Amino acid sequence: LQNVPIFQDLTTNELEAIAPLFVERTFKKGTIIFFEGDLGDEFFLIESGVVKIYRIDYAKEIILALFRDGDFFGEMSLIQKGLTRSATAETLETSTIYTLVRSEFYQFLERTPKLSLRLLEANMERLRKANEQIYDLTFLDVRMRIIKVVHRLAEEHGIIKQGNLMINMKLTHQQLANLAGTVRESVTKVLQELQEDQIITIQKKMIYINNLEAMKKLFPPPT
Ligand code: CMP
Hints:
There is one protein chain. Strand 11 and strand 12 form a beta hairpin. Helices cover 40% and strands 27% of the residues. The chain is α+β, with helices and mostly antiparallel strands. The protein starts with 11 loop residues before the first helix and ends in a 7-residue tail after the last helix. The protein is globular, with a radius of gyration of 19 Å. Helix 5 (142-157) packs across helix 6 (173-180). The mean pLDDT is 95. It binds adenosine-3',5'-cyclic-monophosphate. The site of adenosine-3',5'-cyclic-monophosphate (CMP) has 15 residues, from strand 5, helix 2 and helix 4.
């Protein structure tokens, strides 16, 4: 738990008090952890794996967030009493997740102001990203949105592999489309163009960024 950003200011005593209350669970790839509209009774902390947070409307889906090791989710409907899950959570990889029941989560928050502040800080970061998503969906064209999504993934999930920057997350063109608010065909077309311009390379379905700076020039800077 020490390596989890929201727990980083806690003392060993505080960590030792909370650690035994978490229950470890493993979810296979493609498992729905909860649906939008469900009653929320647990808080989730990802030990390993990837979780997609999304909303769906008939066949269309918009991905609100991708979470992985060290990230938490499911806090909103616990803190906003009487409200249900604001989105659906599904594993994109087999994931080991710690869960904490509502009453324990709540008591721990009340007793530990430092944790509340960290949670608030993390949620502000999420609000910033959500504002960015609103901006992009409102003002950017499809091509720019796709490029910006790939750029953001490179910044958030990029690792250096054999000297090259690689997005360390396996995503299908459909999933990229659901992040950018568009259709799969557009993603395929734009990724093809980026490869022709030697801005990216795709190998074994993984995206490598050859020129992050050139990519950044293809969409407007944040306001
Ligand atoms: P909850 O509403 O309980 O269940 C869905 C969870 O998804 C929510 O808590 C948050 O943890 C997370 N979530 C919902 N919307 C967003 C968003 N826009 N950005 C990041 N996380 C979100």
